[in-house]
Amino acid sequence: MKKALFITYFWPPSGKASLHWPLTMINHLPKFGWQPSVLTVNKDTFTEQDNSFLNEIDKGLEVIKTKTFEPFNIYKKFIGKSKGDRLNASETISQSNKSITHKISVWIRMNLFIPDARAGWYFYAVKEGKKLLKKNNFDAIISVGPPHTSHLIGNKISKKFKVPHFPVFIDPWVDVVYYKNFNRSNLTLAIDKHFEKKVLKNCRQAIFVTKTMLTDYVKKYKFINNKSNILYWGYSEKYFFNLTSKSKNDETVIIHAGNIFDYQNPKEFWKLLKRKIDEGEKIKLKFIGTVAPLIKETINEIGLSNYTNYKGFLSYTEMLNELNNADYLLVCASEKRHVPGKLFEYLRIRKTIIAFGDDNEEVKQIIENANAGKMFNYNETAEEIFEKDYSTDQTTGKIEIYERENIAKELSEILNNN
Fold first, then answer.
1. Looking at domain 237-401, what is its CATH homologous superfamily?
2. pTM above 0.90?
3. Across residues 118-131, what is the average pLDDT?
4. For residues 147 and 117, is the Cβ–Cβ distance under 8 A?
5. Which residues on adjacent β-strands are paired with residue 352?
């Protein structure tokens, strides 16, 4: 059996959604002739924990954990939080926070931590990675980013031991959407672009989780045209058995799961919901995960606060049960290269999907191909979504292709052919 080293920052018991893909690939790959090992951190102190995922790790899996330096405790102290206070992703890059301490901290984050705030993991991981490869013969190195520091680690070890490197891009690197409205210096951008190009030049094959991201990267770096692949984020079927179903009442429940940022604010949709409530309809809006300050402000200004439930972080099973008992599932795509991972879980739940995302043709096509809902621009009300129940008429076979065992098989074929 061939051996693959996965470099992934997020690992159980982290509750970060970004660990689902590598964890599932690692669990399925032995069926297709590949034995994985994992290089990760001792503890992810930033994200919430979901201990249920510890049960998903095969007892025979080799997992190497290293130290890391994270700036978040310093950041918390700088903005006046205690060490034990939780941070969330939408808070750290919020544009509604106008305090000078926040602005300074964002500038430091955007300009001094290259390629990202996990840059402090690099030297620890490279050191342990070298030890590991001196003792073992690996046939492939697979790095998962963000954080894109993972790709720099994979690149360094790959070149040192001449092992093929396969970086997996969940999000773009240098020009990811949440950098858009923040000032990054020309020097920072030059260094970051150098790192990105270096990784792509050295890699055997680059893997992207959306078609649009692949197309965008090929335009930017023509040399990867013949060494690029698409593997969607997908979902894992086993988590959808034995979900609980509550008895229905006359209240319409709309749920958004995952992070929602300041720039993902469908104001006209919030206004529509308030109008419907004022006309006598019973509507409950729920958020699972982190909600940016500007979103909360808008909901409060419109008068939706009394009809909104901020549930915060839930375990994965709890989250799926909430989705299963909703009437509508809300997803906000960042920009045209972004396909939210939650979309695939939404598809599998088979409830009507309300999607927002300007010029995001890929999300639109995925939803329409499955007849699962409708896509709108952020300035639209999405009123027509309530005129048809998509949950009973979704296209058979258009959802199952995203099951992760099928995706793991595709990954094994990429590895075998290179």
1. Glycogen Phosphorylase B; (3.40.50.2000)
2. no
3. 94
4. yes
5. 328
